[in-house]
Amino acid sequence: MKPLETGKNIYNVGVRDWNIRDFHGYSVYQGTTYNAFLIIDEKVALIDTVKSEFADQLLDNIAKIIDPKKIDYVISNHTEMDHSGSLPRIMHKIGEDKPLYCSKMGCKNLSLHFSQKWNYKAVENGEELSLGKRTLAFLETRMLHWPDSMFSYLKEDKILFSSDAFGQHYAGSESFDDEIGAAIMPHARKYFANILLPMAPLILKLLEKVNELGLEIDTICPDHGIVWRKDPAKIINAYLDWSSQEPQKKAVVIYDTMWHSTQAMAEAIAAGIGEEGVSAKPIHIRSSHRSEIMTEVMDAKGIIVGSPTINNGLFPTVSDFLTYMKGLKPKNKIGAAFGSYGWSGESVKLINRELEAMKFKIIDPGLKIQFVPDKESLAACIEFGKKIGKSIIE
Fold first, then answer.
1. CA distance 116 to 138
2. Averaged over 262-278, what is the pLDDT?
3. DSSP 8-state class, residue 97
């Protein structure tokens, strides 16, 4: 993408990655962007870079604004390689001795990623850097979502460079929130559910701190996706809502199936939940990417998981999803398990063990049906669903 002016003498010189579809396990069906921001003042600062394979595009974009050698400072808000991967090319181009500002953990992590002995400048929380007429202030955001993470705030322009926070994995023709409108919110929600959910308590504390500091924010420039210039409060309020993890009266019935028996159970259970006036959606794991399922899980109160028993264990895709969900630490859920079996039937017990490890409230020992569910068995599934539905609306 061409350099885009996001403020007076402030440019997004990042790139669009149109072809990526998997971002280390996260489905990115509409690509993504790696944003990097160039601030032109008496001193010139570059905030973050892009993945290494896009280094030439980043340098070309910078060169359309200024000679890259005129960059005085590089700011690394986040060490992850989609934002630091081009640092070797950038530092080599502008001068290996140019100051590289980052958090203390950023210095440590960058030195573990790259062998070059750069001129690291570790900043304290609240420390400022004058660019001449403008001032950058640094706000430590440790574990949001890496130990090195920090925000940079351009005081005079009230612009928050927020690293991975408030971002979205989305590549389109639009660059700003007012250009895409509400259509960006599902992408932001999915991003939160799959990347930031484990840090939800920290996000609430950070937003409280920002409020206490009286930080005025006119624009938010994340490292992925569109820039929030019209209504930055919209995404901040959404983060407050998502971080609170207040569940809705909604259930997701997540399952895989071998010969459609567990599928028939899932659909009957969802129907039973629905009979109690609760929204319920059966989701076949192999028909939906795990990151899409997790987006549905985020605000659901009921998480119902089903698996056939295979080789005395869980179906592999169900194990995969449970592992993924456990790592994202969803809270305030009730859970239940079900599944068909042939001659042993351990899957329900194993699912319950995983749900309990996630501190879900288990509302029933679970429902097992041998081989193909008959009319009576499906009626039992509906009753099982009704019990779940009643628990959700209590």
1. 24
2. 98
3. T
Bridge partner list, 388: none
Which alpha helices (H) appear in 161-216, and where do they start and end?
A: 177-180, 185-191, 200-213
| β-sheet bridge partners, residue 194 | none
Is residue 142 pLDDT above 90, yes or no?
no
- What are the catalytic residues? 24, 78, 80, 82, 145, 164, 191, 224
**1 pLDDT exceeds 80?**
no
Q: Compute the distance between CA of residue 67 and CA of residue 76 in angstroms, rounded to an integer.
A: 20
* SS3 of residue 163 by DSSP: coil
What is the model's pTM?
Answer: 0.95
Average the pLDDT over 375-388 and give the result: 98
Count CA within 13 A, CB hemisphere, residue 263.
Answer: 9
**Secondary structure class of 14 (helix, strand, coil):** coil
In the chain, pLDDT over 90 holds for what percent of residues?
94
How do the residues of the chain divide into helix, strand and coil, expressed in percent and rounded to 5? 40, 25, 35
The angle at the Cα of 149, spanning 144 to 151, to the nearest 5 degrees, equals: 95
Per-residue pLDDT at 314 exceeds 90: yes
Q: What is the mean pLDDT of residues 140-146?
A: 86
List, in sequence order, every residue forming a beta bridge with 283; answer none if it has no partner.
254
Using alpha carbons, select from 381, 237, 389, 254 the residue that is nearest to residue 319: 254
3-class SS of residue 32: strand
Question: Whole-angstrom Cα distance, residue 295 to residue 52?
Answer: 29
pLDDT tens digits, 154-184: 999 999 999 999 999 999 999 999 999 999 9
Instruction: Tell whether the torsion through CA atoms of 259, 263, 265 and 268 is positive or negative.
Output: negative
Distances (CA, A) of 297 to 69, 112, 360: 48, 35, 12
